[in-house]
Amino acid sequence: MTTVIETCRIPPPRGVAAKLFLPLSFLDMSWLHSSPMYILNFYNHPCSEAEFSNSIVPNLKHSLSLTLKHYLPIAANLLYPLDTDTSKPVIRYTSGDTVALTIADSSLDFDELVANHAKESDQFYDLLQPPAPLTEEENYQIAPLISLQATLFPNRGICIVMNFHHSLCDGRSIVGFLKAWAMINKSAGDAVFVSKNGESLPFFEKPVSEDSRRVDGMFWNAMKKIPFKTVVSHPRPTNRVRASFILRQSDIIKLKHRFLSAKPNLVRVSDFVVATAYFWTTLVKSHGSAGDENEVFVFPADVRGSRNALFDPPVPLHYFGNCLGGGVVSVEHRKLAAEDGFVVAAEAIGDVIKAQIYDGDEFLKSPENQLSKMSKPERVFGVLVAYGSPKFDFKDADFGWGEARKVEVLSLDDEKYGMLLGNSDDGGLIIGMSLPNDMMESFASTFKDGLVGGKVYGKSRM
């Protein structure tokens, strides 16, 4: 069980701007009605309750306040208009706004929670506090954008929980905030953070172009038809288990050889392509027959710093907010479930990346097409959604306790199927999954069989 010790409100330090208003772009609006994101970072750090209360907690509070000076939208609120015909949503910070930080301790088994083997998903929700309810002010509903929690596992470790509304920002931005908080906490001040980031401190002004203004209006016209609510019950019981699977660098190299031997006209293939293709086809083989229905794989693609069809010049790398395009790969189930399904999947993923993301004339071209897909979803058997990226890994945030032992994204439970990508210690990839128990057993068996004996689904990798 987890016991709350205190919930405090952390303000930015004195001297920050008194007000900040950020209108939502279509990149933010597409997340308005999504469920909150829960990120859990577990750290090996054996300490007593006295050390936690007398040293660690005060440092976390102080460093969080200093971090808010550089990440002011974290302390802001989302204002959603009551009259959606005359006003649009806005992120607003005013002097006096704060971030909720809960301090707790837990008797759950830390080693069980951070293990890679399958374990019940429901136990992780004991570490969460309910989202704050909506309030009203004049013509707006007001929703806090983030809350934080630090939980002690006495003499074993600490868990830092972030609960944030996706309309605030994407994964790259929230990782940036977490790493900044960690760096400032570790160095007992923000001088190191400022010196290391220099002119690349977070940039909040929304990217705008003539076309993006038009798309903003189209997205708002669609989103305002959906009732706004941010308070959702935690999805318990989930009837799911969580497990993590490692593709070592040697596995990835062999998967590349397997793919390139089947496609000799190609000269290279990325780690991301072969890893996600392998997990996707393993999943497909784990959930039964679907005949000619399609399987869909959805993955994010960061727009920052990349030439695209909407913003010229490209969005700065240090932009804080939502800045995601993405790829959608659709393949018939029977093709992925076939013996050469891995090759089919890798080729399909690679083709989408090349055509929709690497091609700057196509990347972010006609984003309003997403709206028609939302209203008329494709009939599919299964959808796999990728979370995270090895390029910006949550576990790299070091509060002075080393990198995180384990990261869990509870939003995987909200998807039919989801996968969380991160870096493993040997230069490979670790991927987390949340599945029904019987399906997880099938997935684990198929995953292992495909990597044993120099074969991938019965064919030589070399």
TrEMBL record:
UniProt entry tagged with the keyword Acyltransferase: yes
GO molecular function terms noted in the UniProt entry: acyltransferase activity, transferring groups other than amino-acyl groups
Keyword Acyltransferase attributed: yes
Domain of life: Eukaryota
Sorted UniProt keywords: Acyltransferase, Transferase
One Pfam short name: Transferase
Name of the featured protein: Malonyl-coenzyme:anthocyanin 5-O-glucoside-6'''-O-malonyltransferase-like
Organism (species): Salvia divinorum (Maria pastora)
